Amino acid sequence: VSRTARAIERSSHDGRRTAAQPEIATSALRLFETRTSLGAAPKLTLIAAYGLLLVAVADNAARQGSGGSLKLLFWVGLALIYGPIAFRLFGGGAQRSERIVLALVLGLSLLLVKVLHSPAEFARFDELGWWRATRDVIASGHTFGGNPLNGSTAVYPALATITAAVSQLTGLSIFHSGLIVIAVARAVLMLALFLFLEQVIRSSRAAGIGVAIYACNPSFLYFDAQFAYESLALTAAAAVLLIALRWSRHYRSAPVSATVGLAGVLLVLSCGLTLTHHMTSIAVAAFLALWAGTAATTMRSSDARDGAHRVHGPLVPAALLILTSALWLSLLAAPATVSELGGQFSRAFTSVSDLITGASSTKQLFSGAGQGEGLASRVLTVAYILLTLILVFVGLRAMWRGSDRVRDPLWWTLSAVALLYPITLGLRLTLASSEISQRASGFAFLGAAFLAALLTVRSTRVAWRPRALLAARLGLTAMAVLSLIGSFLLGELQATRQPGPYLVGAEDRSVTPEGVAAAAFASAHLPAGSRALLDRTNATLLGSYGGLNPVFGRFGSTSLPRILFSSRFDATDLRALRGQSLAYIVVDRRLAREPPLIGYYVESDEPGAFVRKLPVSANALAKFTSVASLSKVYSNGPIDIYDTRELLR
Amino acid sequence: VATLALALLAVIAALVPLATWARVILLVPLVFALPGYAVLSALLPAWPIPAAERAVYAVALSIAVCVLAGVSTQLVLGLDRAMWAAVLTLVTVAASTVALQRQRPLAWRRPPLPAVTMPAPTTVLAFVVAAGLAAWAISLASASARESRADARFTEIWALPVKPPAPGGAAVSIGVANHEDSASSYVVDVTQKGAALLHEPIALRDGERWQVRLPVAAITGARPVEVTLQHEGHVYRRAYLNSGRAS
Is B212 on the interface with A (CB under 8 A)? Predict the structure, then answer.
């Protein structure tokens, strides 16, 4: 058995393991796992931990407002976490169990980089929306409650429900319970991704490299590490893909009871994914449908005559997920989903069509929303994009020219997913569509990871000299580190990469003790659920910790932010206030310091969004002091809360 | 059997008073591992799934089962600690029972479990030290975040209408909270239509708050209530209640 195990491990390194030995492989690998050491994994884990210490020191320096060399330690820390692990994964010396441990260490270490950014509380808009949803589940004992910060939390309750379960059972705060949920999700995502790629390419080395490349997607470091539904949904998606692969590959050798059992697991996981996140459910359903379609078109005529082949291929997983998603949408989730996704896609479509027809120009590249990038950042970002494009196109070329497994429909489907990257890259040319490009990267990089893994397998067929091999590994590691840093530069605003002093309209950089104190006041003294007009940051805080219901949008033709920013309070403002029954107006006078970094103060379609060069005037924010019948019920210096209820009577 | 035992241990932990760390150790598996492992064992009692893949399904199924069970339960009963413990234990016990029933006739087919070898002590030590370093990094970041929060120095003032002590009258609740990072002295002045209702010097330690409930005449546009807070000789904060209606 041990000879068999060694043979399998050797063949799994170079991708030559055949499908004809699953039973022997399963039992041998199980035994093999318990006998192998973890190789360099302990040392590399220690190095990653030192990297985390450097990130913490750099973040602390940034938090205190001191710039310079200490802040640069952040990048050194990132490289120290990622580089050595990537170097080891690129090599052929590590055993399977070591690669699995390294994938887990990499995923969890990069998650901790996000935790070090805000170690005491959630601070991002999405995170605080989910904090509110979880608190409502705990307070009411029921899901499906409305959420003024994110309407989708009511109809996709998985994250809030599971976090509430952890919090209620253990007595931990929502923050700590949420961190546990996200950490478990990240660990399982890395493991599932590794196993998926390993089974697709039949090489543990390729799987390790695929996981390392997946970590270079622009959402991985912060966006998909935040306390929000996509972070959990990616894990559910990876599990669905893994079980779908097992279903499609092993049906011929499975007895009927196992087939029913696999279908049961598929169904439960599909329901879990459906209740977690709309976009991920749709993306995975589309992937499975594409895979099933590709399988059908490449099916041999003998297989086509075999009805069981059709049932047991990827068609059943695709059908189950499409069925559960469609059912959930038709029962409950359609309005919120259409409102959220429809809005995003229609804005993106309009902005791209305007760009094509010349009605608008591209956004200023490398400017984020308000801050320009330095030359080094620009070079790194461009290098990252070029490297990814090269990876995709070289990988696709290898697919096209390859003679083995080219008939595998899953390989073609994954290659098609990789093509999403260059396609969605174009969406970064406009501000309105940039978010879609950013969010798509979490899915598109599954294809990129596959192509990277595929190229690895192909490269092992070339006889390398030891020195050339070492040079190649070093070169690949350097490019991978550069890609990780470039992806982070591309995916995260300059101001929000590290903590720091207050900035206007800069997501977590705008969260300050004054805002938290105002939220605590609202929670203790103002009627819960009162409708209020606020800027985005204070809406996040007072809508979550404060228990108020921030109101966005318009009343008739009047954009609600106009009430905050008009030079004087007039009849139009009063009509909108009345029309929306706004009980409180929260004014943050710091908004007059500078234009908002993300491009808007309240919401992305407010007047002046993304084009504002000057901040709102201090007089506009101070106008409420002269409005009769308004009561200023709270002030902490920068933040005032006005009670409008007498005015609206 | 071990899953059943752990589930029963967890339900006991949920119902008796325990330290938070003990609850975390005993109850987190009830959310993330036990229900999924039991359901997987019930659905696929004899299908050979490697350990790593089984772990993925166990956790993913646990999350899905927890969500489905929670969402279904809340339609009829509210979710609280006892309900979560009961529901998740029930699912685990039911699925484990089915798994045991289905596995019994297949027991002879199962390969013997491989011997579990412990990692080398140096390996364990390296992981423990790495975990310690990561914990140190988090504690450094937490301390820094607390410090930067303390750097923000401000004082809160509020004035809210409250239920009056007698019909026909009015009352206000006034509060001051000190976040100046040091003990501070203030003077609170409350006036209504120019008449002084309160003039009170107060001294608050950092983090301390002061509150008073004050009866006032009915608040109208002609008789607003104004609260000013003086600090270091100048008006520092101001709040007011104004009905805007003529008396």
Answer: no
CB-based contact A169:B31 (threshold 8 Å): yes
Q: What is the distance in angstroms between the Cα of A390 and the nearest Cα belonging to chain B?
A: 32
The CA–CA distances, whole Å, from B183 to A228, B76, B189 equal: 40, 52, 20
State the distance between the two ends of chain A, measured CA to CA, in whole angstroms.
Answer: 84
Cα A227-A233-A234 angle, rounded to 5 deg: 100
In our burial notation (b when 16+ CB lie closer than 10 A, e otherwise), range B86-97 reads bbbbebbbebbe
In degrees, to the nearest 5, what angle opens at C-alpha A181 toward C-alphas A262 and B125?
100
The number of beta carbons lying within 10 Å of the beta carbon of residue B163 is: 8
User: Residue ranges of chain A with pLDDT lower than 70?
Assistant: 1-36, 67, 251-253, 299-312, 355, 358-372, 403-407, 429-432, 461
Mutate to test the interface with B, among A635, A639, A642 (most CBs of B within 10 A): A635
pLDDT computed for residue A312 by the predictor: 58
- A228 exposure class (CB count in 10 Å sphere: 0-12, 13-18, 19+): buried
ipTM surpassing 0.85, yes or no? Answer: yes
Query: Chain A contact for B169, CB < 8 A?
Result: no
What pLDDT is recorded for position A301? 58
Please give the helix or strand (H or E) that residue B198 lies within, else none. strand B195-204
Q: Which residues pair with A641 in a beta bridge?
A: A586, A634
| A172 Cβ contact partners less than 8 Å away, ≥ 6 residues apart | A166, A180, B20, B24
Which tokens belong to A209? Answer: 């490299």
CB contact, 8 Å: B149 with chain A?
Answer: yes
Burial degree of B98 (CB within 10 A; 0-12, 13-18, 19+): middle
* Pairing relationship of beta strands A584-588 and A531-533 according to DSSP bridges: parallel
Query: What is the reported pTM?
Result: 0.89
Beta strands in A369-427 (DSSP E): none
- How far apart (Å, rounded) are the C-alpha atoms in residues A185 and A158? 12
Those residues whose C-beta lies under 8 Å from the C-beta of residue A516, and which sit 6 or more positions away, are: A121, A541, A545
Angle of CA points A589, A595, A596, to nearest 5°: 85
Q: At what angle do helices A204-214 and A69-90 cross, to 10 degrees?
A: 160
The length of chain B in residues reads: 247
B12 at interface of A, judged by CB pairs closer than 8 A = no
**pLDDT score at B185:** 95
Helices (H), B80-180: 81-103, 121-151
Q: Which two tokens stand for residue B13?
A: 């932990």
Q: Which residues of chain B have pLDDT under 70?
A: 105-117, 165-166, 168, 221-222, 244-247
The answer to whether the CB of A106 falls within 8 A of the CB of A48 is yes
Crossing angle, helix A229-250 and helix A431-459, to 10 degrees?
40
CA distance B204 to chain A (A): 16
For residue A371, what pLDDT is reported? 61
Burial of A222 (0-12, 13-18, 19+ CB in 10 A): buried
User: Would you call A162 and B123 a contact, using CB atoms and an 8 Å cutoff?
Assistant: no
Residue A302's pLDDT is what? 56
Other Cβ atoms less than 10 A from the Cβ of B11: the count is: 22
DSSP β-ladder status, A584-588 and A631-635: unpaired
pLDDT one-digit tens code per residue, A86-140: 999 998 889 999 999 999 999 999 999 999 999 999 999 999 999 999 999 999 9
Q: How many CB atoms are closer than 10 A to CB A582?
A: 25
Q: What angle do CA A238, A242, A246 make, to 5 degrees?
A: 170
Query: Touching check for B27 and chain A: CB below 8 Å?
Result: yes
- Count Cβ atoms below 10 Å from residue A172 Cβ, excluding itself: 21
